[in-house]
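From: lab user (bench 3)
To: helpdesk
Subject: output format question, protein + NAP

Hello, I'm new to running complex predictions and I'm not sure whether the block I got back is the full result or only part of it. Here's what I submitted:
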Amino acid sequence: MSADRFVAITGASSGIGRATALRLAEAGCRLLLGARRERELEATAEGARSLGAQVWFRWLDVSDPGACEAFAAEFQRRSEGSLPVLIQAAGVARFGSSARWDEDAARETVESNLLGAMRLASLAATWMRGGGGRIIHVLSIAAVRPLPGSSVYSASKAGLLAFDRVMREELRRSGVLVTSILPGAVDTPIWQPGSGPNRSDMLPAQAVAEAIAEIALAPQDRAYDELVLMPPKGIL
Ligand SMILES: NC(=O)c1ccc[n+]([C@@H]2O[C@H](COP(=O)([O-])OP(=O)(O)OC[C@H]3O[C@@H](n4cnc5c(N)ncnc54)[C@H](OP(=O)(O)O)[C@@H]3O)[C@@H](O)[C@H]2O)c1
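Helpdesk reply: Thanks, we reran it on our side. This is the complete output you should expect:
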């Protein structure tokens, strides 16, 4: 089942993207990994290889249209003959008051979390339409619930949710299934040390990775449109 999947993962150098890469390596998928920090990306690739997977990785900044085109082209070429799955976990979180948000931080957030994900999803969808596939986006509960201090981040995630909802309906009859995953707080390096809720209350990255993997490996006779995945205590 899993060996027929070719999975491209953005944000694979850390956190949820890295945990997902390792989980899918265990399941026997072939992988293409992307992120900006090459040493960390290589460490994920080595970890996945040590689990027996065939893995490629390349530098990717999703805010760079040329880098997205090159990543999508390699994804298309390497996935020939397999069912392609695109998992987009790349993202940044910058927190601050909605009354005084920082222009540069907002631009980086929208470029990485919204425009970058839209860009790569569109590039992949153009050729996936021929033979089917899956596109899985890691959004956030912040897309649908008001979390004080997260206005710009929430706007980026709500924007991607709106994009996904339209893309899902446009693509589903062509066999390309789009999933939006909305996790609550997850224990990853996105949280600065000492900031945010109690880490032991957060979801482990492994839990999110397992949910993503279940969708990535599912037969094409079922669509997972949206999944809310929360720590047992809810919003922390
Ligand atoms: N942790 C949480 O509480 C939580 C909750 C809900 C949703 N999420 C979402 O889950 C996703 C993964 O976050 P995480 O918690 O795993 O955080 P993380 O450990 O900081 O990982 C974020 C990943 O995104 C990559 N990235 C950021 N900007 C990028 C860009 N412009 N181009 C390419 N890659 C980029 C980073 O790699 P490089 O820096 O190497 O590029 C890194 O691999 C994010 O979209 C985040 O919003 C997280």
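A quick orientation on your result: The two ends are 37 Å apart (CA to CA). Let us know if anything else is unclear.
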